[in-house]
Write a structure and sequence with these properties.
- The strands form 3 sheets. This protein has a 6-stranded mixed beta sheet with strand order 1-4-10-7-12-6, with no helix packed on it.
- The protein contains 4 helices and 13 strands.
- 10% of the residues lie in helices and 27% in strands.
- The chain has one domain.
- With 295 residues, it is mainly beta.
C-alpha cells in the first residue's frame, strides 16, 4: 500500500505539506553513508492530484496509516506514560532525540556518526509478507523549534518486489532496497509534513521510507518517540477540520525551551542506541546531549 494520510480537510493538509523527489548521495557528501537517499531539488506545495493520491481509503489498515496529531496530557505525567491510555498496554517508550537546526535529515549511524538519510526502521524485523503489520510510531515534537517528518510515497513491500522480482517473498524489506530502487533510476516522491512544538504524528516507520528534518529552521528540535499498535483516531487530528495552521514556532525571549503547548486533558531501523530520560515529564524535558535514535 502506498503512503496514506488520514485527513478531513484537503486545504488544511496542503498547508502543512510539501513534496519533492529524491536522489542518492554523491561520493563527496561524506557526512552521509554511501548511497544514502536524500531529498533532491526544491520542495513545492502539493497539487490537488497529489493530495488525492495520499488519501486513505474508507476502511484503511490501521498499521499502514499516517496521522498528524496533537497529544493530550496531564501536567507532570512522565513521558514514558504518555501513551498509556491509547489502547496498547505493550507500547514502548523509545526515548528522545535532539536534532540541530538546519539538518536536511536528522538520523545518524550511532557507530560512526554518519547520517543514514531516508530509511526504514526495523524494530519488529518482519519478513516481506508481514511487513505491513508492524507497529506504528508516535513522535511528539518537544521543541523549541519546528521540525518535519519526511515520508516516502511508495511502501516497503512494493519496493522489495521491484528490486527482487524473483525472490521477494523470502526477503526482509530493508533500507538497502530503497537505495537500490533510487540508484537504478526508478522514481520516488516524498512528502514533508511540518510539526510545530506540541504536535506529532503516528506513522508506520517500519513500512514507509522516512526521516526527520529541521531544514531551514533556526532552532533545535527535540522529539520523543513511542512504538505500539494503536487504532486509528485514538488521538485528535490536526488536519480533520479547516483551520489556520500556525506559522513555525518562535521561542519567546527568556522562555524555557522545553515548555511545549500540548493539549491538556480535562481529566486525570535497526536497533540503535537509545538514551532514555525516566525523570522527564510533559512539562519539563531533559535535552542534554545527543541522543542516537532512528527517526
Amino acid at each position: 500500500m502506498p503512503l496514506h494520510i488520514a485527513y478531513g480537510d484537503p486545504s488544511t493538509l496542503r498547508a502543512r505539506c510539501e513534496t519533492a523527489t529524491v536522489r542518492t548521495t554523491r561520493r563527496d557528501e561524506t557526512t552521509y553513508e554511501p548511497g544514502a537517499i536524500i531529498p533532491a531539488g526544491q520542495w513545492r506545495p502539493m497539487t490537488e492530484a497529489e493530495v488525492k493520491a495520499v488519501t486513505a481509503p474508507r476502511r484503511p489498515l490501521d498499521s499502514t496509516l499516517v496521522e498528524i496529531v496533537r497529544l493530550t496530557h496531564r501536567e507532570g505525567l512522565p513521558l514514558e506514560e504518555l501513551t498509556g491510555p491509547l489502547g496498547d498496554p505493550k507500547a514502548v517508550y523509545l526515548g528522545q532525540a535532539l536534532a540541530k537546526p538546519g539538518m536536511t535529515t536528522t538520523t545518524d549511524n550511532f557507530e560512526d556518526g554518519r547520517l543514514i538519510g531516508l530509511h526504514l526502521d526495523n524494530w519488529d524485523k518482519l519478513p516481506y509478507a508481514d511487513k505491513h503489520t508492524g507497529r506504528r510510531r508516535i513522535c511528539l515534537n518537544l521543541g523549541p523549534g519546528t521540525r518535519y517528518i519526511i515520508l516516502g510515497a511508495i511502501d516497503a513491500q512494493t519496493v522489495c518486489r521491484a528490486v527482487h522480482p524473483d525472490d521477494h517473498t523470502h526477503r526482509y524489506p530493508h533500507t538497502q532496497d530503497y537505495r537500490h530502487h533510487v540508484a537504478s533510476g526508478r522514481p520516488l516522491r516524498i512528502v514533508r509534513i511540518r510539526l510545530n512544538p506540541g504536535e506529532g504524528y503516528v506513522a508506520p516507520t517500519e513500512y514507509l521510507l522516512h526521516d526527520g528534518s529541521t531544514e531551514a529552521q533556526d532552532q533545535p528540535s527535540a522529539a520523543a518517540f513511542w512504538l505500539g499498535h494503536w487504532p486509528r483516531g485514538i488521538l485528535p487530528s490536526l488536519v480533520w477540520h479547516r483551520v489556520t495552521v500556525p506559522p513555525p514556532h518562535r521561542q519567546e525571549q527568556g522562555a524555557h525551551p522545553c515548555r511545549h503547548p500540548l493539549t491538556r486533558s480535562g481529566s486525570s531501523t535497526d536497533s540503535p542506541l537509545v538514551r532514555v530520560f525516566p525523570q522527564c515529564t510533559v512539562s519539563s524535558v531533559a535535552l542534554a546531549g545527543s541522543v542516537h535514535l532512528r527517526e
